[in-house]
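Why should sequence recovery work at all? Because a backbone constrains its sequence more than one might expect. Tight turns favour small or flexible residues, buried strands favour hydrophobic ones, and helices have their own preferences. The token representation captures these environments compactly. In the example below, the structure is given first.
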């Protein structure tokens, strides 16, 4: 069965051009391929999205995005600082690791990969917190509880430039002008 690849442009025109480009072995280099989903979180078989312009995903199609809140067993939470050269929200602190789930990955597999790439934390499992529907993406939110060495966090070049561990109270008190992913605050446990 042949796959339909929809570029996030005027996809009727781009689909025709793709037939020529697909022969070029460098065509998909440095491009993210995503599985397409409907609003019920069901994968649409045979449809692939290519990351170019997320706001041009055709209506009714979505890709998966994961967000992982990291809590240390001592009760502190990991914040990652976005690289100052990122086009969106440069220099903001994030209460999550995460990003787009790649083609062929489940939401959990993509979340474990993003967590490892962005923090160096290798987790065996994650606890799903919730799911929500966005304009062009389906969001999965997870909690990772870890006992990793706090100084072992790895930064991902081009993605993150700093990290810090903060108490639940510090995280809850951070203003939106500094913190991206504030929607995760509802999952912060101030007991410990």
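From this structural description, the recovered sequence reads:
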């Amino acid at each position: 069965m042949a796959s339909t690849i929809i570029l996030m442009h005027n996809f009727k025109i781009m689909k025709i051009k793709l037939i020529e480009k697909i022969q070029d072995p460098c065509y998909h280099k440095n491009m993210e391929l995503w599985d397409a989903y409907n609003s019920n979180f069901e994968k649409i078989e045979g449809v692939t999205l290519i990351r170019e312009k997320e706001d041009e995903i055709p209506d009714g199609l979505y890709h998966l995005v994961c967000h992982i809140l990291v809590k240390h067993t001592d009760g502190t939470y990991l914040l990652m600082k976005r690289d100052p050269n990122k086009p969106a929200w440069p220099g903001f602190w994030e209460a999550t690791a995460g990003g787009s789930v790649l083609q062929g990955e489940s939401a959990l597999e993509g979340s474990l990969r993003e967590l490892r790439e962005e923090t160096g934390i290798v987790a065996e499992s994650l606890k799903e917190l919730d799911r929500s529907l966005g304009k062009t993406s389906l969001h999965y939110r997870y909690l990772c509880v870890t006992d990793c060495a706090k100084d072992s966090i790895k930064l991902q070049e081009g993605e993150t430039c700093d990290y810090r561990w903060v108490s639940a109270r510090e995280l809850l008190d951070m203003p939106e002008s500094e913190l991206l992913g504030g929607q995760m605050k509802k999952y912060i446990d101030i007991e410990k």
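A few observations help interpret the result. The helical segments are 11-21, 107-119, 168-173.
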